[in-house]
From TrEMBL:
One of its GO terms (cellular component) is cytosol. It catalyses: D-sedoheptulose 7-phosphate + D-glyceraldehyde 3-phosphate = aldehydo-D-ribose 5-phosphate + D-xylulose 5-phosphate. This is Transketolase-like pyrimidine-binding domain-containing protein. Residues 280-390 form the Transketolase-like pyrimidine-binding domain. Belongs to the transketolase family. Residues 1-181, 186-252 form the Transketolase N-terminal domain. One of its GO terms (molecular function) is transketolase activity. InterPro entries: THDP-binding (IPR029061), Transketo_C/PFOR_II (IPR009014), Transketolase-like_Pyr-bd (IPR005475), Transketolase_fam (IPR033247), Transketolase_N (IPR005474). GO terms for biological process: pentose-phosphate shunt. Its cofactor is Mg(2+); thiamine diphosphate; Co(2+).
Amino acid sequence: MGCAPMGHILYDEIMRYNPKNPYWFNRDCFVLSAGHGCMLQYALLHLAGYDSVQEDDLKNLEHQVILRILKHLELKLQLVCLLGQCIANVVGLALAEKHLVARFNKSNNEIVDHYMYAILGDGCQMEGIANEACSFARHCGLGMLIAFYDDNQISLDRDTKITFIENVDECFKGLGWHVIWSRMGILVTTTVGYGSPNKANSYNVHGSALGAMEVDATRKNLTWPHEPFHVPEDVKRHWSRHVQQGAALEKYKDEATELKLIITGELPARWDKHFHPANATRNLPQQNPNAFVKVLPGFLGGSADLASSNMTLLKMYGNFQKDTPEERNIRFGVREHEIGVICNSITYHSPDLIPYYATFFVFTDYMIAAIRMSALSQARVIYIMTHDSIESVLPSSVSSRLNIEAESTFGWNKIVGLKGKAIGIDWFGTSAPTGRLYKEFNLTPEVVVAAAKELC
């Protein structure tokens, strides 16, 4: 509710997009960090004319499986992120934009020309990944990137004074960012739960529903006489212009075969023939990336200051730096927390930008949240993990092994062995009540008992 003015101004007056073509390449992108506020984003998409968010979806959002909405959005135009990953995603999108600008824009024809916007909050700034990402953004000289800091000074437990008192604008200034403060909305002072007469500016409204009585009180306080989910005709007329305006904004001419491959996700013919499966594994991180980069126009990546050790340098190209963004060796630095997120968002930007990231296997624990988001969003990120050691767990005499976990079964086959069983979930993307999910994914006592009996 406190972010509603920001969201309205962004979607109604600033951002360039086409509601009837959500995958228009040169659209502006928006990333929402506060996932519990996603109803605001869905409402804005509905008002703007996106077919993927209908009125019934908004009415049933809390109770239904919302897979259809997520499949339509595919995290490519509008992103809802984990805390801290928000700003890192925006940095990755801006990196991809700058790279493509350097490769394809001409003085008389700017094919790539769009902005990245984000709304982030106190929780994002508490996560260390935010500092990593913003430091990296300054080093790369990224532009076209605007973050709105929702400065409502409220967290889930209490006001932020109990956990967070740093001067955010000074931190960003120290990182080399341009900072602007605004009373009503980097730094926007807002009121959490704006309009609620009894819960506004309180942690009670941060992550919980208002409740029926407070909703009625809020409607009266804001003098909103309409029924729930009703959009007045004058509001519809005002927002409907985005469909026509969005169509008029698309002026991209398909004139570059290489760029077309990058933005459509089409892989070149026989690209897989360049793969080197039969060789010493220590050489593969060097051979395969250098083979792929010759045939995949969107292939780029790097490591955390380990390229000389894990041998992942692209020999044909130089380093992606502030003044050489067309190059394809990204020098990430020692920033594992944000590297995975940046790689994810590079794939969100364009379907055939295929980033790779290499590190020692032990350091992947730093980036497990980003790797999980790679799986959740089906991002085409290549993780090269080297210098592993040999995870003995159970004696060979124990052959009846059963693993039960409401997670992916990936990796458990090695532990449970050929005679064991792994019960879990090998698919992401569904939101619904717990009981329904466990039944849908066969995580029930009956299934577990039957599997255990088979091992006896």
